[in-house]
Design brief:
Length: about 750
């Protein structure tokens, strides 16, 4: 009995002592659980709000970006010209397939001024114009509204970034949500002959679906989980959604996704901990708060990275153009009246297109990344550096005393960039062009200094490249003059009496017999007089006239060559031409029109063509050889070619560059170099021609070395057709065979 009483007393004592403690622990646990649930719910709400905001921003951005993408081809003289000509192949390349491959547009259409479909691109291929009918219901109202804006010449919303009016909206196309954007095709130069009646322009329509790739992008960039498009809104608490609405407010459907719920993810983990370690509730709460803070920090870092990606270049990690402009605006706003002048510098990689063509686009990207890294290591912490465009960088500096200091900085910059860049384990040496402007901070706007820097950069590129220049007001006039010369070059090509082929004879080693001639082009302007090829040929290359000019020169050369059946005629072909499909067949067909044989013609190619990694130049050169053309490698020794290239392409002749020939008369190792080149060619059974022979001494040395033929002003300057006939006749009168 006593034992039972003691046991009961012990149980009561235990209950009296443990119950309050249990109640306190339970109360603390319940309070902690409630606090955790409230914190988790709030964290989930904040996360959902942020995800909703990011998703809404992404939907809005795609609508604005597609119109901006279009302006890269719709504000362009060439687009207006080729649409008027009806050149749908050109339209397909530039307004269709390029927009798909570069910007990711899913479809493109072009309407005539009377809104008749002219061209359609869809399913990664050109389609019949009638394919427009499937989007007509959505696109026609946009086109009509665009025409109305154009007729009223509405300038509302236009800026240096938005060049033309546009109309865009969301729509359901073949059961999929899409954004459709309409833009007028207009001139970028304002030429009168390209102007169109307002409201009756050609219309370019771009379509991009906002499911598929767009949802993948949203998932990767903004951490949107399992996004999809649905005709109905999210059901239940497991999903969230936002409505996709047209400009008129009609709901087309909903973007639905599974929200990331950091709070509940943590709460699920902590519940087990709380159940097992209730007595250590304070430590558990502290651990929870720590983990929660880590999650929030991680989320903030992810959001910061998303903001970073929106304002920085993915390839180099440098600020992009938009961020660069914002930084300049901020610096200008903070600059005091006694601040030293500000300097804005734009830097371009010279002939970057050739790097892509020779080494491939991946190598081009590696080069841009390497240049960005080297530039970043050169500038001060107070300077602002950015990647402005494809191969263009910008640098904004304060505290530059004067133009001399800016020039000194440019010299140091170019010295540092002169060292080769290691790209894919291969050293690549490139040159740069730079333009800068130096101006007091209180007297200029960002737009004006950007304009001045761009003009200076353009001036540096059009006056030789591999140089840096500061902005001068007269450069504006230079650029206007250059544009005028481009227009006059087009007129000269159409007139066919200003561009006149000349022929520079090629002599045997003794210099007493003409064995062939190289076709060169001269421009005799009716007002300007002779225009140097060194000036107008780069203009022709940049404005897309070079192929037409080369075809014109070939026809004129063929017409003249019928008078010289025993001479070898050399014509130049650029790497651009050799990459064009059918170049070899077109050249042979031109010769056939004039009754000439390819055996009497030699195609001079550059070393750029020799190392074209796409293989197109290689195939074209092989085709030319199969047709009977001789192949000569021009300016040998100055570029990238090697013995392997000579063997691979089976070159018939190498033309030793004039820079080596000049060294023959100087106390250098020039003689040894030229002799080695000639012996190399002889060992490979390749004929040699020395370019730029200027003295009798050079001729004698080259003949002694065994050079096959000579070319240069000492023997003969380039001659007109009539002069060439007279020279050959004089040679024949002396009893020398041609």
């Amino acid at each position: 009995m006593q034992s039972e009483t003691r046991a009961l007393s012990a149980r009561v004592f235990f209950l009296n002592r443990s119950l309050p403690a249990l109640l306190i622990i339970a109360a603390i646990g319940i309070a902690a659980q409630l606090i955790l649930q409230i914190a988790a719910s709030e964290s989930d709400r904040v996360a959902l709000d942020r995800q909703t905001h990011l998703f809404t921003m992404a939907v809005g951005d795609i609508r604005a970006s597609i119109a901006h993408d279009q302006e890269s081809v719709t504000v362009w003289d060439d687009s207006v010209t080729n649409l008027r000509k009806g050149d749908l192949d050109w339209v397909d390349i530039n307004l269709g397939s390029w927009m798909h491959s570069y910007f990711g547009h899913d479809a493109a259409f072009v309407l005539s001024p009377d809104d008749t479909p002219l061209y359609a691109f869809d399913d990664e291929a050109r389609q019949p114009p009638e394919d427009y009918d499937r989007i007509a219901a959505c696109a026609d109202p946009l086109v009509a509204g665009l025409h109305e804006k154009q007729r009223e010449q509405d300038s509302d919303g236009l800026s240096d970034r938005i060049l033309t009016q546009g109309a865009s909206d969301f729509c359901i196309v073949t059961g999929r949500p899409a954004v459709i954007s309409a833009k007028p095709v207009v001139t970028d130069s304002g030429k009168e002959e390209l102007e169109q009646e307002p409201g009756r322009e050609y219309t370019h329509i771009a379509l991009r679906f906002v499911d598929g790739d767009f949802l993948t992008m949203a998932s990767q960039r903004y951490m949107i989980l399992e996004p999809r498009f649905s005709p109905t809104a999210a059901q239940g608490s497991g999903e969230a959604s936002i409505a996709l609405q047209t400009a008129s407010g009609n709901t087309l459907g909903y973007f639905v996704w599974r929200p990331w719920r950091p709070g509940h993810a943590i709460l699920d983990r902590m519940t087990l901990v709380l159940a097992a370690l209730t007595a250590l509730i304070a430590m558990v709460v502290e651990a929870f708060l720590y983990i929660l803070s880590r999650r929030l920090v991680s989320q903030q870092r992810a959001e910061a990275r998303a903001r970073h990606l929106a304002s920085h270049d993915l390839l180099t990690g440098l600020p992009n153009r938009l961020q660069f402009q914002k930084a300049i605006d901020s610096r200008l706003a903070d600059t005091g009246h006694d601040q030293a002048p500000l300097c804005l510098l734009y830097l371009d990689i010279d002939r970057f297109k050739q790097v892509n063509e020779i080494y491939g686009h991946l190598a081009g990207d590696s080069l841009i990344s390497a240049v960005g890294a080297r530039l970043g290591a050169l500038v001060r912490d107070t300077d602002i550096i950015a990647r402005i465009a494809g191969n263009q960088f910008g640098l904004f500096m304060s505290g530059v005393a004067d133009e001399n200091e800016a020039e000194c900085f440019c010299n140091r910059l170019f010295d540092a960039l002169r060292a080769p860049f290691l790209v894919e384990d291969e050293p690549i040496t490139v040159t740069f062009s730079a333009g800068f402007t130096l101006t007091p901070a209180t007297e200029v706007t960002r737009e004006e200094i950007e304009r001045q820097a761009e003009i200076a950069l353009d001036y540096a590129k059009t006056t030789g490249r591999n140089r840096h220049v500061g902005f001068k007001p007269q450069q504006d006039e230079h650029l206007r003059e250059r544009r005028q010369l481009e227009a006059e070059l087009r007129l000269a090509l159409a007139a066919e009496d200003q561009l006149v082929p000349h022929y520079q004879p090629v002599f045997n080693a003794a210099g007493d017999r003409i064995t062939g001639m190289e076709v060169l082009l001269r421009w005799f302007h009716p007002q300007r007089g002779p225009v140097s090829p060194a000036f107008f040929i780069p203009i022709a290359e940049q404005c897309g006239l070079i192929e037409e000019i080369d075809a014109y020169v070939l026809r004129r050369a063929c017409a003249a060559a019928r008078q010289w059946p025993d001479l070898i005629i050399s014509v130049n072909a650029s790497a651009v031409e050799l990459r064009r499909a059918g170049y070899a067949d077109r050249t042979a067909a031109t010769l056939a029109e004039y009754g000439l044989s390819p055996r009497n013609f030699e195609i001079e190619v550059t070393e750029t063509a020799m190392i074209d990694r796409t293989g197109e130049c290689n195939r074209t050169i092989r085709t030319l050889r199969d047709l009977g053309f001789g192949i000569a490698l021009d300016d040998f020794g100055t570029g990238f070619s090697s013995l392997g290239h000579l063997q691979q392409f089976k070159v018939d002749r190498i033309k030793i560059d004039r820079s080596f020939i000049m060294g023959l008369d100087r106390p250098t190792n020039g003689r040894a170099i030229v002799s080695a080149l000639i012996q190399l060619a002889q060992a490979m059974n390749i004929r040699t021609t020395a370019e730029g022979v200027e003295t009798a001494g050079q001729q004698t040395l080259l003949a002694e070395m065994g050079c096959d033929s000579l070319q240069g002003y000492y023997l003969s300057r380039p001659l007109s057709e009539a002069q060439m006939l007279e020279r050959i006749a004089r040679q024949q009168n002396f009893g020398l065979a041609v």
